[in-house]
């Protein structure tokens, strides 16, 4: 039965159409997306109280969970229940285990059922599992490395043949490396992950991975084969050709635990019984690429029947380092989209270049056939010069080149193993015979995060901007959030990460990704509380403490809390957040943070001929003071959530002093700021630095400034993320839209008009005359300015988290159409399920369709309406005059 109800608001007619079909007899609920610590059936859970989540699917409207039951045991049928709980509440996200202490390396099975507010009871969910990680004393494996000094640039291979006496019931492989590893059993890769064990603050902790390898093993002879690359551990990383930052020796640690069908057990570990040799990878490193000589391939080396010749040497066992081994918590890096070559052409300089149509991060899989010894070189570039030539100067010293040397006349497919490239174009040298489109495929490689957001509008340029934002994210979420993926940098720049984190959480599920990285933020935070420019920190110890960069320590935990409702992140990061705020207090004088080095509003608008003071320079200490306030506010927010009332009182008092000091130092009595820039007003308003009565005039000064620049933004990394938010908040939606839809430089759409397929580092990476910005800092894949995505989801589509009920338990749906947009539509997969908001404007009527997942609720505010509608789960239709 369709129920249509209409509601009238005082000013506008709001038609609320309940299109939702309710069939009373078929009100059933079921559960989906069951996870432990954000992961489906994970293998290396270190948290002693792992947290369970599920989503409820219901055909009825207004569905809420009334209670839940969880049961857990150690057998797949859970016949013996080790822990059960039945709780009357509507919590369905991140519920902590609360039973007897869990044992290490043990598989636990669990299931859940729920009852809703309509009296429906779900079936018990299918049984899920999680496996606990290893305790330090569970490791009997030894770190192994090549004998003597590890000086060869080539990738060492490690090999172990072993015999399994009986039928295998289960087998788990625990593996990690200093460097990067690619592991195989009986010739097959143990997983589809790349760049394992991932990049962490290795001096503090190294992740290990766990693989279920039962299917690869058999009774009788078996072989493990592992090759190692330099990776971030030993290879070139950071500036000035820095190498061996974490250590000079690549090493492997592996433990294979087998259980036979009769219950007896066997463990195979790395130790001095293993053999090592060298194979075809002659060099590999993150920035420069890989050289692979197929003539050195050792056919069958990682399989049985291979005869080790005298080139295979014994390994040496290494003493365990001080670093902790921790189970992997984030997503692995895997292959994703493939791109066919679109065009092969000769440039004016006569080079053979291939266009894949998308700036991406990963590599090219190249098919080739030719005489032994033929060397093919693939070079990578993001852009062509205005003359149409292949351009690599902006890569600085990164070679980004893969070399393949053919072994014989057979056809082979090549790809790198321990390196990735950022590119849209490749240049091919030395290819034997005719290079055809089908010989090349580009594959995007990034952390395996689920796409959670979709966003589109009636404006194709905006849709391309959204595309570019999401490709900026893919390319720079390769295990750590990096500034760029192509030049000799690729570092976890904290300023960029804090600017982009909330946008990232719309586009993809970044919960596990940032949870992992925040451990590094804590680990690399300096003893005095300061936070390094990059995490993991590979720069100097005192390269730390820049406003808007170091504030990542408070901003990202809070963003993750709001996006995923994860109180645990706040608990874990609280000390780090507090240490950071206390650090600022320790260097502040009279409550003013006016010391130290700051990057400031990085890459703000700076015209060449600046005779009229058009450059939008914002005083750096003024900026620092606003971030001091912001970080303090976020610490207070976290303290409130965690019930730390003393801290709430203490830091509230501090916050007041910070704001008073700001005003005294930076504002005239009439409300003008010492830097008359967009960023100055944006930060002052976003972080509530000004007294209430002076905010509207400050917002007007911001508007005047934007108008004065002909509706152009002039903000850099720090002002840009908040620019449109502040304009919207103070009622200047039209100005926000003017900026967003601006097509000439500087603007978000200027690069789009210039053909960008990712977000650029600079507003004018390619200038209007087609020439490039300075080559020493001109990345074409830098996500920071993509932070506008947050505003697009929140304001255009209108999907907003509500921090009082985080994780979209309650959602504010408040779309604000503007200028000539006639429709917009977005979806977000939240921890409760899918939220949808989609609107059109036709014939002066604004029509909105909203979907709210079960166990969540929403507040809907129609454009220009003064009334709010509270709705429960289900799908709804609204209309109003517009
Ligand atoms: C990086 C940035 C970073 C900046 C610090 C650059 O080299 O690419 O994105 O935030 O340095 O200002």
Characterise this structure.
The radius of gyration is 28 Å and the shape is globular. The strands form 9 sheets. Strands 20, 21, 24, 25, 26, 27, 30, 31, 32 and 33 form a 10-stranded mixed β-sheet that branches. A 7-stranded antiparallel β-sheet has the order 1-2-44-41-40-39-34. It has 14 helices and 44 strands. The N terminus is likely disordered. It is an alpha+beta fold and about 900 residues long. It folds into 5 domains: about 120 residues, Immunoglobulin-like (Sandwich), CATH 2.60.40; about 190 residues, Galactose-binding domain-like (Jelly Rolls, Sandwich), CATH 2.60.120.260; about 120 residues, Sandwich (Jelly Rolls), CATH 2.60.120; about 350 residues, Glycosyltransferase; about 70 residues, Maltose phosphorylase, domain 3. The chain starts with a strand and ends with a strand. The structure holds beta-D-glucopyranose. The site of beta-D-glucopyranose (BGC) has 9 residues, from helix 3.
Low-confidence stretches: 1-27
Structure annotation, total helices = 14
Assembly classification: single chain
Beta-strand content bin: 25-35%
Report the CATH architecture of the largest domain: Alpha/alpha barrel
Q: What brief labels describe this structure?
A:
alpha+beta, Jelly Rolls, 10-stranded mixed beta sheet, 14 helices, binds beta-D-glucopyranose
Topology:
Elements: E1 3-8, E2 13-18, E3 29-36, E4 51-58, E5 65-73, E6 83-87, E7 95-96, E8 107-116, E9 128-131, E10 143-146, E11 156-164, E12 168-178, E13 180-185, E14 188-189, E15 205-212, E16 220-229, H1 231-234, E17 251-260, E18 265-269, E19 275-278, E20 281-285, E21 289-293, E22 313-318, E23 324-327, E24 333-340, E25 343-346, E26 352-368, E27 375-381, E28 383-384, E29 390-391, E30 401-405, E31 412-414, E32 421-429, E33 440-447, E34 453-457, H2 460-476, E35 477-478, E36 480-481, H3 494-507, H4 511-524, H5 552-564, H6 567-587, H7 620-641, H8 645-666, H9 678-686, H10 695-708, H11 720-729, H12 733-741, H13 749-753, H14 788-797, E37 799-801, E38 810-813, E39 823-829, E40 834-842, E41 845-852, E42 857-861, E43 868-871, E44 874-881
Parallel strand pairs: 15-23, 21-30, 38-42
Antiparallel strand pairs: 1-2, 2-44, 3-4, 4-7, 5-6, 5-8, 8-9, 10-22, 11-16, 11-19, 12-15, 12-17, 13-14, 13-16, 17-18, 19-22, 20-21, 24-33, 25-26, 26-31, 26-32, 26-33, 27-30, 27-32, 28-29, 34-39, 35-36, 37-38, 39-40, 40-41, 41-44, 42-43
The structure holds beta-D-glucopyranose.
Signal peptide: 1-26
Enzyme class: hydrolase
Domain Alpha-L-rhamnosidase concanavalin-like: 346-446
């Amino acid at each position: 039965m369709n129920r249509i109800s209409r509601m009238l608001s005082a000013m506008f007619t709001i038609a609320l159409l309940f299109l939702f079909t309710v069939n009373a007899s078929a009100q059933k609920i079921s559960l989906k997306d069951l996870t432990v610590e954000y992961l489906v059936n994970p293998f290396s859970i270190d948290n002693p109280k792992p947290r369970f989540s599920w989503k409820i699917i219901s055909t009825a409207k207004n569905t809420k969970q009334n209670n839940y039951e969880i049961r857990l045991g150690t057998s797949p049928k859970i016949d013996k229940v080790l822990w059960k709980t039945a709780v009357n509440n509507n919590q369905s996200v991140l519920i902590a285990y609360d039973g007897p202490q869990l044992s290490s390396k043990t598989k636990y099975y669990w299931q859940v059922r729920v009852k809703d507010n309509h009296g429906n009871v779900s079936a018990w969910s299918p049984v899920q599992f999680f496996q606990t990680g290893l305790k330090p004393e569970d490791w009997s494996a030894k770190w192994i490395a090549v004998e003597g000094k590890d000086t060869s640039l080539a990738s060492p291979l490690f090999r172990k043949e072993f015999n399994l006496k009986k039928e295998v019931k289960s087998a788990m492989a625990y593996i990690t490396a200093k460097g990067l590893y690619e592991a195989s059993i009986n010739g097959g890769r143990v997983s589809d992950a790349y760049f394992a064990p991932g990049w962490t603050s290795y001096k503090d902790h190294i992740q290990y991975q766990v693989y279920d390898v039962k299917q690869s093993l058999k009774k009788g002879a078996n072989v493990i084969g592992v090759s190692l690359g330099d990776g971030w551990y030993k290879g070139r990383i950071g500036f000035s050709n820095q190498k061996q930052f974490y250590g000079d020796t690549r090493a492997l640690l592996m433990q294979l635990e087998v259980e036979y069908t009769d219950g007896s057990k066997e463990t195979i570990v790395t130790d001095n019984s293993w053999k090592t040799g060298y194979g075809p990878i002659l060099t590999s490193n993150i920035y420069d690429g890989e050289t692979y000589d197929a003539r050195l391939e050792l056919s069958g080396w990682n399989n049985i029947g291979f005869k080790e010749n005298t080139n295979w040497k014994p390994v040496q066992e290494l003493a365990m380092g001080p670093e902790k081994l921790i189970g992997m918590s984030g997503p692995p890096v895997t292959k994703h989209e493939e791109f066919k070559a679109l065009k092969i052409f000769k440039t004016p300089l006569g080079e053979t270049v291939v266009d894949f149509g998308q700036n991406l991060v990963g590599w090219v899989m190249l098919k080739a056939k030719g005489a032994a010894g033929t060397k093919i070189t693939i070079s990578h570039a993001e852009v062509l010069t205005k003359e149409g030539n292949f351009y690599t100067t902006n890569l600085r010293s990164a070679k980004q080149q893969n070399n393949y040397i053919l072994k014989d006349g057979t056809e082979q497919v090549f790809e790198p193993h321990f390196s990735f490239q950022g590119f849209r174009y490749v240049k091919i040298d030395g290819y034997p015979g005719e290079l055809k489109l089908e010989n090349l495929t580009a594959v995007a490689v990034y952390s395996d995060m689920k796409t959670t957001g979709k966003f589109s509008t009636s404006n194709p340029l905006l849709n391309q901007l959204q595309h570019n934002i999401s490709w900026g994210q893919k390319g720079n979420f390769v295990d750590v959030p990096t500034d760029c993926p192509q030049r000799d940098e690729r570092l976890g720049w904290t300023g960029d990460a804090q600017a982009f984190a909330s946008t990232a959480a719309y586009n993809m599920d970044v919960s596990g990704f940032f949870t992992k990285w925040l451990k590094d933020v804590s680990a690399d935070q300096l003893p005095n509380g300061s936070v390094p420019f990059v995490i993991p920190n590979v720069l100097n110890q005192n390269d730390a403490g820049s406003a808007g960069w170091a504030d990542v320590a408070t901003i990202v935990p809070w963003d993750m809390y709001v996006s995923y409702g994860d109180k645990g992140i706040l608990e874990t990061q609280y000390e780090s957040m507090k240490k950071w705020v206390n650090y600022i207090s320790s260097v502040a004088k009279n409550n003013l943070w006016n010391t130290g080095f700051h990057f400031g509003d990085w890459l703000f608008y700076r015209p060449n001929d600046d005779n009229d003071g058009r450059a939008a320079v914002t005083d750096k200490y003024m900026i620092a003071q606003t971030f001091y306030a912001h970080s303090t506010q976020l610490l207070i927010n976290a303290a409130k959530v965690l019930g730390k009332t003393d801290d709430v009182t203490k830091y509230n008092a501090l916050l007041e002093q910070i704001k008073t000091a700001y005003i005294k130092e930076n504002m005239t009595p009439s409300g003008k700021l010492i830097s008359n820039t967009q960023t100055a007003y944006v930060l002052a308003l976003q972080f509530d630095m000004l007294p209430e009565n002076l905010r509207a005039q400050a917002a007007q000064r911001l508007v005047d400034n934007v108008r004065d620049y002909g509706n152009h933004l002039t903000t850099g990394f720090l002002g840009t993320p908040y620019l449109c938010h502040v304009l919207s908040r103070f009622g200047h939606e039209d100005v926000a839209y003017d900026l967003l839809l601006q097509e000439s430089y500087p603007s978000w759409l200027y690069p789009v008009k210039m053909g960008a397929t990712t977000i650029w580092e600079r507003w004018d990476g390619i200038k209007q005359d087609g020439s490039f910005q300075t080559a020493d800092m001109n990345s074409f894949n830098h996500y920071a300015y993509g932070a506008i995505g947050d505003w697009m989801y929140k304001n255009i589509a209108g999907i907003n988290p509500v921090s009082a009920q985080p994780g979209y338990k309650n959602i504010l749906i408040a779309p604000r159409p503007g200028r000539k947009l006639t429709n917009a539509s977005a979806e977000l997969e939240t921890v409760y399920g899918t939220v949808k908001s989609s609107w059109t404007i036709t014939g002066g009527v604004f029509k909105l369709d909203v979907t709210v997942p079960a166990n969540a609720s929403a507040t809907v505010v129609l454009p220009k309406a003064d009334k709010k509608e509270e709705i429960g789960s289900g799908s709804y239709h609204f209309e109003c005059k517009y």
